[in-house]
């Protein structure tokens, strides 16, 4: 392998004004502007060879993540790709355990989001160098892991016959953001049904009567056999979650997502226990900040669906550990992807889970939201409500330079126009 020394890291604050139309809204994030801290790595070997990575945020605060990426960049610039990937564990620890910077973490919050952005760019760079899509290089080292060994047989078939032809099952959240009107909800849901969607997630948690009305409407539209999930984005305390969800049980949701504080492992365990007789599971993970949290959730039987996130934890490195733990506990992985760039990234992880780890589609699906894909060089491909494996080498999060420039905050033309309108 060529050395590919990283000679430059740039990071930009890119925001999309999604709050104007209430895309992405939920019971806690009522006005999200889908945003990213967007990282580009340049190498000394070839001007065209770059690594692209990002982490997702919802608007204000992206500038803090950008600062954290800048602070970590000194640990990356000057390293060769070969040095990094020949001891990737060491490099991960270098970023997450820096003797001075770990005080502002460790492995949580802004610094962890920044770590994810950088590591996502490194994985992208590595995949481009190898000329492969991410799920292929990940096939190595099966020899020492019994979980991986168990499913070696059938890998080719799962990839070539199933994934390339049919794709990985997806569900949609795009029909029922909390700020959408009933009319919008009805229209989007009917369109989604016509496009072949069978699994739908509805935002809940702000007002019980609204939730009853919206869930009833969606259940009527999708019929009894399609799947419904509900997501409260941490709005309730533990007892409130149990009471509230019990009142929504008649709509037969498969899961309640983020019912309470994302750090309350035992609270989630109580909710899981109380809702099990109603056939409702607990899903969480989009704000679960590291593998140790997932370990606690799994050990305490506090979740029934593991929602990995490509930007919340330390990139592929940490998500591999979480995917393996989920397999050990026999809990399905159903990734979170509500945000800009998350579908593009997480599709690689869920394909790896299916091909190399779980070998099962039972109770498994990957979230899809139909926003902002047009800003990516290799946008996700959805066919008949399934993710079709990406073909271009890399981790799929390179953005169109024109989009980045237009949406850069605060000086891009989109934001200048919004500021102007505000002044009028
Ligand atoms: C603020 C985001 O849109 C959030 O609501 C996404 C989410 O919870 C999900 O997709 O799940
Ligand atoms: Mg959610």
TrEMBL record:
Keywords: Lyase, Magnesium, Metal-binding. It catalyses: L-fuconate = 2-dehydro-3-deoxy-L-fuconate + H2O. Its EC number is 4.2.1.68. GO terms for biological process: amino acid catabolic process; carbohydrate catabolic process. One of its GO terms (molecular function) is magnesium ion binding. It comes from the Eukaryota. Its cofactor is Mg(2+). InterPro entries: Enolase-like_C_sf (IPR036849), Enolase-like_N (IPR029017), Enolase_C-like (IPR029065), Mandel_Rmase/mucon_lact_enz_CS (IPR018110), Mandelate_racemase_C (IPR013342), Mandelate_racemase_N_dom (IPR013341), RHMD-like (IPR046945). Residues 182-278 form the Mandelate racemase/muconate lactonizing enzyme C-terminal domain. The keyword Magnesium applies. Belongs to the mandelate racemase/muconate lactonizing enzyme family. ENOSF1 subfamily. PANTHER family: ENOLASE SUPERFAMILY, MANDELATE RACEMASE, MITOCHONDRIAL ENOLASE SUPERFAMILY MEMBER 1. This is Mitochondrial enolase superfamily member 1.
